[in-house]
Request: fold
Amino acid sequence: MQTKDKILKILEENSNQYISGEDLALELNISRTAIWKAIKQLKSLGYDIEGVSTKGYNLTKSGDILSKEKIQSMLNQNFDIVYFDEIDSTNSYAKKLGEKAFNQTLIIANEQGKGRGRMGRFFYSPKDLGVYFSLLLKPKIDATKSVMLTTLAAVSIAEVVEEMTDKKVSIKWVNDLLIENKKFCGILTEGSISMENGELNYAVVGMGVNIYKPKKGYPKNIENIATALFENDQKQYDFKNKFIANVVNKFMLYYENIESLSYFNSYKKRSISLSKTVDVIKLNEVKRAKVLDLDENFSLVVQYENGDIEHLSSGEISIKDI
Ligand code: BTN
Reply:
């Protein structure tokens, strides 16, 4: 643990109290200059630390700052964590690591310049306002079952949001998470397939969650469809670190027995697509259909206006009656 993290831990344990530089120096067995430098570093990261010459330092619990060390300390399993203040895309980075990476690598960014969504879309990933992370795993599953990873991520995020906030989450098949019919999270699963056995060499499960709304609102093209867990001025102390750790811990619990599909009901009960009228969008064709069910492969069972029934394993739908 770096000096700044040790100091942060002490200040957090003694919040609303002043701790003198001398006491910190004694406890950590370092010079007061080293303490002063570390405090300066923490302040530049955004921590609200008040310094009063006669009393010492006091941490006001107001910030929500990503910290690799904190996330690591809350994870129940061993992960290689790579953290970026800014990157083009955590999924792109993970794919570059590919098979060479440690099985169980977690790539986290505070901002993405070229966040990627499904169908080649852009995923808006502004600084400080969300969590953007990719899990790189080497699952022993057939590549045709990779939808299980996307749906598992969706359930993990939905359950953690409902445990940590008072929001109710619904899922728009297959990978969009909504609050009051607006999207706050998207998931992009990518990977590479072994030609020998059809299994995944590795998979990258990328999750982007809007935690705070931008002060000036969302860009025009998404302003009517995007939302976040909290308003811009509702900063929650240390929410993002706990959120990532809780999602990864939950994901790994289900992942250990992924083929048992123990999370299927949790997905289905939040699925807003069921019994809705939808437009099924395939390449250049759009067909109206009614959603009948979700099957155990997470395929959407739809019935077209001519009576034909199809199990959709991928693709996109647009829901008509919400
Ligand atoms: C979608 O809504 O179509 C999927 C969005 C997925 C966004 C996440 S953010 C972390 C990871 N890195 C990316 O570039 N994309 C995913």
Q: What stands out?
A: Residues 89-91, 112, 115-118, 121, 123, 125, 132-134, 186-188, 206-208 surround biotin (CB under 6 Å). The chain has a mean pLDDT of 95.
